[in-house]
Specification:
alpha+beta
C-alpha cells in the first residue's frame, strides 16, 4: 500500500521547517503539538494557512511539521513557505497562484553579524571630542 506524501522545506532567518502533507482531514501538527497550541497568535496561524486558502485545499490534507531554530515569527514564516513548496510538490499547476501571492520566494533577510570594534553590526562606540 502506497500513500502519497508531499514534502517541502521552508527557511526564514535561522528557522528551518520540514513539512509533510498527506491526504486526510485537515489536522495540522507542529512538533507533535496542534497548530493552535504551538502558534497562539491569530496572525501567525493565518499566515501559515494562507497557501491552503489561496489554493482551495484547506481541510484536504493532514500536515505534519518539524520546525526548529529562530523565534516564533521566523518559524511561522518558514512553515508557510514550506507548506507552499509542499503544495507545489502535490500539484505543479498551483504554482502560479502561490507565486502571484508571493509565497514562492524565500525571504533572504538574515541578521547581520557583529563586527569587532563595534557595539553591534553597525553601531560604533560613542566618540567625544573633548
Amino acid at each position: 500500500m502506497t500513500t502519497d506524501i508531499y514534502h517541502g522545506v521552508g527557511k526564514r532567518k535561522s528557522a528551518i521547517a520540514r513539512v509533510w502533507m498527506r491526504p486526510g482531514t485537515g489536522i495540522v501538527t507542529i512538533n507533535n503539538i496542534p497548530l493552535e497550541n504551538y502558534f497562539t497568535r491569530e496572525t501567525l496561524i493565518a499566515f501559515i494557512l494562507r497557501p491552503l486558502r489561496l489554493t482551495s485545499t484547506e481541510g484536504q490534507f493532514d500536515i505534519k511539521v518539524n520546525v526548529k531554530g529562530g523565534g516564533i515569527s521566523g518559524q511561522a514564516d518558514a512553515v508557510g513557505y514550506g507548506l507552499a513548496k509542499a503544495l507545489i510538490d502535490y500539484d505543479i499547476n498551483l504554482r502560479p497562484v502561490l507565486k502571484k501571492a508571493g509565497l514562492c520566494t524565500r525571504d533572504a533577510r538574515v541578521v547581520e553579524r557583529k563586527k569587532y570594534g563595534r557595539h553591534k553590526a553597525r553601531k560604533g562606540f560613542q566618540w567625544r571630542k573633548r
